[in-house]
Amino acid sequence: MKLEFPDWRDDVLAALECLAAKPPRLSGSDVDPRWPDVTNAIHWLIDDTWWDTTDPSESIGRILHDEREASAVRRAVEAVLAVAGRLQPEDVDRLWFGDASWPLVRTRAGEALDVLRTADRT
Predict the structure, then answer these.
(1) Nearest C-alpha neighbor of 23 from the set 13, 41, 38
(2) Inter-axis angle of helices 102-121 and 67-84, to 10 degrees?
(3) What are phi and psi of 64, to 5 degrees?
(4) Angle CA 3–34–87, to nearest 5
């Protein structure tokens, strides 16, 4: 299936890759030195897609290929939103990475990344 917004999908893939990765060593500024950094990864995954207010299944054909992808992304978004419910967007990255649920974010983002990459290879 050809997607309507393949560039958005690329951003989602980059965001999931960042979120699934081991947190980087932070400098004295507590800012993630990667690109995308954790702030932008969350922005790309949540704000740019509106998946905090719309179900990812509504993006099938636009950003996602099927319900399997939507389900995996939904689980990752739910994990990120759970952490976001305890933190403020302007909180330093150290607090995001240090949240007790951050390992779940990493796991769910990694699972979603695997599902999306598998679809891209077929």
Answers:
(1) 38
(2) 160
(3) -115, 155
(4) 85
d(CA 57, CA 37): 26
pLDDT digits (tens, 9 = 90+) for 48-96: 999 999 999 999 999 999 999 999 999 999 999 999 999 987 788 889 9
Q: What are residue 60's phi and psi, to 5 degrees?
A: -65, 130
| DSSP H or E run through 116 | helix 102-121
Cβ contact 73:60 at 8 Å: no
- Is the entire prediction scored with pTM above 0.85? yes
Distances (CA, A) of 69 to 45, 58, 75, 119: 13, 11, 10, 8
